[in-house]
Amino acid sequence: MAIAVDLGVQFLQMMLVLALAPLLTGYVRRVKAHLVRRQGPPLLQPYRDLLRLLRKEVVLAESASWLFRVAPYLVFAATWVAAALVPTFATGLLFSYAADVIAIVALLGSARFMLALAGLDVGTSFGGIGASREMMIASLAEPAMLMVVFTLSLMAGSTQLSFIAASMQAPEVGLRVSLALALVALIMVAIAENGRIPVDNPATHLELTMVHEAMILEYSGRHLAVIELASYVKLLLYVSVIGCVFFPWGLAPSGEGAIAYLGGIAVYLLKLAAGGFALAVFETAIAKMRVFRYSDFLGAALMLGLLATLLLFVSRVT
Amino acid sequence: MTVEVLLWCVAALLVTGVAAVVLARRRSATVLVYGATLPASVIALAVAGAALLAPALLEGAPLILPLGLPWLGAHFRLDALAAFFLVVVNLGAAAASLYGLGYGRHEEAPARVLPFFPAFLAGMNLVVLADDAFTFLFAWEFMSLSSWALVMAHHRRAGNAAAGYIYLLMASFGTLALILAFGLLSGPVGGYAFAEIRSAAPSAWMSAAILALALLGAGSKAGIVPLHVWLPLAHPAAPSHVSALMSGVMTKVAVYGFVRVAFDLLGTPLWWWGAAVALIGGITAVMGVLHALMEHDLKRLLAYHTVENIGIIFIGLGLALAFEANEMPAAAALALTAALFHVFNHSLFKSLLFFGAGAVLTATGERDMERLGGLIHRMPKTAFFFLVGSAAISALPPFNGFVSEWLTFQAILLSPALPQWLLKFLVPAVGALLALSAALAAACFVKAFGVTFLGRPRSAVARDAVETDRFSLASMALLATLCLLAGILPGYFIDALAPVTQGLAGAHLPEQRQLDWLTIVPVAQSRSSYNGLLVFLFIAASAGLGAAAIHRWASSALRRSPAWDCGFPDPNPATQYTAGSFSQPIRRVFGTVVFRAREEVHMPPPGDLRPAVLHVRLRDVLWDAFYAPLAGFVDYVAGILNQVQFLTIRAYLTLVFSALVLLLVVLAAWQ
Amino acid sequence: MERLALDVAHLCAGGLVLVSFMLLYQDRMSGLIKTFALHALVVSFSVAWQAYIQQAPHLYITAAIALGVKALVIPIALHRMVVRLGIHRSIEPVVSIGQTMLGGIGLVALSVMVMLPVTAQAGTLAREDLAFALSVILLGLLMMISRRNAVSQVIGFMSIENGLILAATGAKGMPLVVEISVAFSILVALIVIGVFLFRIRERFETVDVHLLHEHRGERP
User: Nearest-CA neighbor of B327 among B507, B207, B502?
Assistant: First the structure.
């Protein structure tokens, strides 16, 4: 009986993540529009976009192979599984012990691997541009992410997100400069991985500024809908990770009961709203970088992560 | 008993080698030779596997045969470490033999390959079984020479003769270093048997010298930086199944040599040895993968990748040495398990990738990726297996590469417990290097798979390729299945490694078999856990659920048409991305520092119809800084010594006389 | 309360190291001057906090001097000087920014490895501050040797001085007199350097130190 309840809660988290992802993207777009004194699209527009794409016919290039057709589902599956393993409203869910944060980073890497291959599949130069730039960004963003993971794991004594979140709630943690550095590095990595300004422009369709859009240029119809949904889920994943690690208050411990879970969901919605608002303000405030400045940006994130790990050994030394 | 069976298998391999010399001219020689090595390897694999899983089968005392040195004999022993490495060697050998049954038919010079292949296998088995220094070195040299003969099999092809020459030089250097190491280990008394070496206790400086020599000797065969230069030249020159054995298996035999000396024969290590080995491993990993990214020859790319994975293995070994020096046996066991599991995984997926490259080479005659493309349509099964190998080597869940890298990261995260400050800082820095090399490896294999198999064919041979034969496909399928199994069920493999780490580090990881749902927990449940099976099932279920939902509620219409390409489709396949263009961003970021990469564009003036030319110059800084001056110095000294050739008779007599007088003077002073 | 005091002090000292890295990352003159103002601001806040928790009111004056002189007067003066000299464009570094930051990380690790075992008997706060202060000093020196532009070298020199202030306040017991004299000597040095810069500009039309090399006396 307990197993069934645990399974149910885990399933609820998976469905919640899937349902909220387009809403977060719609909210960010609307806030960005309001910041530049436009009306902006309705909040539920991403849902309508997905439904519209699902109803359309797929136009497949003649040189596309089976990998092109299978890749969207694999990308979506890997991203969804990774998002399902992040504690959103409760820690210690049934499957959260199956993979720790290193595995989550690697699952996102699998998704990126398949997407880059799909970009190369049709044999056009746009797919090549997107794939090669994406792998360059990943080659710097993934080590930076892992250094942030190191810092958090060394502080919490574990790589499981549930344990990290629980140990961050404890009062002994305090204000440590390593945490601040890790937070800044994680935000920089999140921006790079999700293709937001200043690294990539999610609203552009010009080849000189595309990374993610270039890889999925040949996709249409239901395939494109699945890939767009996967990118929405990825943004939600990163905002959830930042929320559950650095602002862990409100996470319901496992097995508490429905009231605690509902409270956790409410706090989670607040965190998403705050994170989305901050992202929108940040994106509106600065301009996009040219491609070969990404290495400086992400190199700085890697250095911050490394510095955070080093400075961890300095404090609380007795 | 088990040792005898194994030695009989080795004898069978040697007999096959000799017979192949006689039979080589026949048409059925290929089937006969590979048909004999396959069962021999499978039997050896079964025996070694049984010995590893049931440690009661391992005997303590060595088997002594009356060969070799008269007062020593040849000692052979099977302990847990040897059993594990025999599993790795024979699994690779069996897969290569199966592959060779199909691939060998396309061999253009079978008389140069068939006799040496069984000899190579026999040499590798003997190195792992050897229990005294003389047998070890003899088998090591035998393995080197037989693989050299295989490298020189196609000696008329451009570059192969030079590759063989450099290989022979580096192999001789490695053997020299190992001879010195074993000489120091045996001490002035000359006790060559490993049992006697274990009981001797060299001083701290002597141990450091022995470790350095073992690192030089075994490391040059494994391919650590800066001794890796022969690897990307020699490995691609050999036939593809031999390349797979050299990259996937022979480098592991070299790792075995290092592990045997560092963990078994030497006493307790010092902490700075671990720091040095881990740092060398980290640099090797990053340099290997950066070189691989710049390559567009498929087999050279795979060979440079071997260098990267050897770096990862040495990171794990260095960590294990550091933990052992600080008397943390559980952590040392974790690091050692991570390194040895990566040994096993790498032999699996590297062999798989080389088999795929061999299939491509047979089908198209091309190794250059920039003349391939679109092979996924012509060779679908090879493409699928190569994709599995690429995903495994890029450390992507749910495959096996991820599990061994995850275990290495867990070992790195135990570093705060180390007391020395240098180690406390070095280990996270090495972790950053490991993370960087993992991310770059994924980029490299997107390039390798994408440019070779995806896209549109860039040349006529790529357009007309055909699928390979069923033996090659069978052996690739076997390795791909093992990659997935090792990723999904890692607990069984970790338990199989427990007797090995118990013998070397004095501890083993907690028993993984009885954990719920086949999770692996390397340290403690509260610390970290990973469940490969659940992740795999999760991904499969999510993908299936997504696909089912889409096909139920979405339109299923599909239409084929020319590519969109922003409205400017170009029928010429030269407009798609090449290998060089794919790695250009990474070359711009890392290459200017590491390779002194420079781009030059020669643009003709307007109106001139000649094409613009882009030159990319890369220099291997190690060649320029280290090997070229060394070669120059050797040339210079050889030039001076050349004069000894042309002396008069009186001069020669004077030389002999002065040497005799000098030795007598030394003898008098020594008294 | 004790914990909060330690945490805030630790955060300020770590923040100073972070701002030193930000100084290394800048590639434009105006950004560099603004970051230096931030550097001085962080050090003044750190000194003020130390004054609060150590119950040492004379340190408030030190903090005020740091704020007034180094966070306001000197950046404004440098900004004016930069505009007059016409060098408000990019700074050419000797090696790339990535390598400089990598070197910076190594220096931080080195300072921690040196300072922490040596100060084993001191209190936690003093040990941390000394380790961070040494990092800031080494990073300031790194900045001086990795920039071609004389103004950025001057800023590097002043960030070294900020590191010294952090060390002095953390170690409990720096008299006010020393601080006033140090601050005035900085001001004097700045005036002198500024004069030199103007005279250099008149004769060589640039303040690129690299070009000064060719006009050293002993070359034929």
Answer: B507
